[in-house]
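Milestone M4 deliverable, item 7.
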Amino acid sequence: MLHHVVIGNGRPVMLVHGAALDHRHMVETFEPIFEECEGWQRIYIDMPGHGKSPARETINTQLDLLNAVMDFATTTFPGQPMALIGESRGSLIAQGFAYLRPELVEGLLLITPGGSPNGPPGRIPKHQTLMPDPALLAEFGESERAGPEILVVHKREIFEKRRRAILPAIPLHDTAQAARVLKAFDFPFDLAAPDDRFDKPSLIVSGRQDSWSGYADAVDWLPTYPRATFALLDTAGHALVWERPEVFRALTLDWLSRMVKAPP
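Output delivered:
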């Protein structure tokens, strides 16, 4: 069993956070969006070794992590198809879920996907801060500023969200499990296999200045998702959900609408 928080009623959507984070990051991002649309039951999980879900000695690969998430979904919500939202590492888990069990996935939202450490060099942009705020950086303490090296935009609300949703999760992250998974980062199957297309409503959002995941992998995956809207946002990096909140909100609401209108 994974620690999880369920909010609302209706069609289930499971939200999977990124590495070293927990469900609070996804709650911070998505609850203001879901307040604008009814009929969705949000399932925010902590992956093993994150937040309140203990690490497991049996998790040694990315596939093990994926299996733990799939086991949770199929045990807690047996036979119930659901939409999946994944950010960063969570997007990889969501992709693997849709690849192995497409009949259980109603739609995919992939945020800042890609960036395998085993990928070819030169596919990740160098870091740029396009909207710096030196005074804001000076105001926040060193511990609270840990991580702005991936930020393209410096805004007070972003630092405050980091304080609430990211910094408390970092000490709970199990680094030993993370190191094992990093050594077996890639799945033993090809997410871009031409015969394994996921043809349900999807949304892929990448940052043009994402110096963590890049955007080249997302572009390569587009043929795999023929029902996907793809957005490559300028002035946005790995934290694009907070750096470009208005456009991200509009894209997410459109994706949710497309699933509601999709034929059964």
